[in-house]
Amino acid sequence: MSPQPHYQPDTVDARQLLRVGAIFALAFGLILAVMYLLWRPQSSRKPQADAVPPAPRLQADPRRDLLATQMEQQRRLQQYGWNDPQHRSAHIPLQQAMARLAAQGERQSAATDQKQQRGAWR
Hints:
about 120 residues; 2 strands
């Protein structure tokens, strides 16, 4: 006598399906609630435009400080000077540096052209 074949049932357990669906819905709702609590809008803490920050206030006038920094940077770009106190490295005006680089590039380009012309005649 051979054992009876076991077939897969052709019905779905509705109660089990509803339990799994309810667990997923509950988990989803719980996740949304936690996310809302963590990232809820901070409407009670709106920043004020003219609010003075607490001490220590390191910059009395930030706009003036920014302007002074920009003027110092422009002055440095337009003058000669030393980069370090030991006088090992210097800087030159920006326009002169660009002119020197352009001239150096022209000399290298001319030398390359001459080498190519000599190589073409051989």
